[in-house]
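Dock zinc ion; give full complex structure.
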Amino acid sequence: MAECGFAVSFGGMESVQEFIAQLPKVELHVHLVGSASMETVLGLARRHPDGGVPLTAEGLAAFYEFRDFPHFIDVYDAVSRLVTEPEDVADLVRGVGRDLAPQNVRYVEMQVSPYAFRRAGLSPALITAALDAGARDALAEHGVRIAYIFDFPGQSADRHATQTLEHALEEPPEALIGFGIGGIEAARAPYRDVIRDVFAAAAAAGLRCVPHGRPAAGRVPARAAAAGRRVADLERAHPVRAVAGGAPAAGDARSRAVRDGEQ
Ligand SMILES: [Zn+2]
């Protein structure tokens, strides 16, 4: 074997790009709804044509031109509201598998916000069954193993934090590995106590804590920053849990907690 990196053979492949394209990969941060491709969202919109989401590719592209983060949340919410049947949930998961397989992604950690589906009338049991079915199909049809992280919007933690925790602990999908928080970071501060409590309970139950947009001192109120530090402390204290089936347990949650800033 060559000792110098520049002498490494790419196995007959013509370029570094081709070599990288063919490497097996993990995707550590996608959202069940937010990462849905045009094809997937069009499928949902056409299944629910009265949902207020454009039914053409052109219309959908314009719909997804975000003005700011609150507008992003509005769009995210509109697409989430299309998800009213278990098959919609399963299709979102299958779509991520289908879309990532060509990049040779073998393992995905996916953020799921069950409150949105509860709002549509789906029970925790139905949501879990749909997530399990989607994960089974993504693996069987596309070779992509899915792991789930449940989260809730910080701005409505008073209504959704405990509900999401109970779902995670009492009726989890088989592949649930973590617990998180998304939504509008600046609006979390009033709910810091319940947020702290649900993360403590999730960690005690063996879930990895994967919060979005951890507050940082200097740009948010000090009390919110303190809440963020407590969550960070929980992450440090919490051991990484292996994923059932031997998929890569994807490293340290701290390194990916704020990958995309907010959701
Ligand atoms: Zn995210």
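Observed: Strands lie at 25-31, 105-112, 145-153, 176-182, 208-209.
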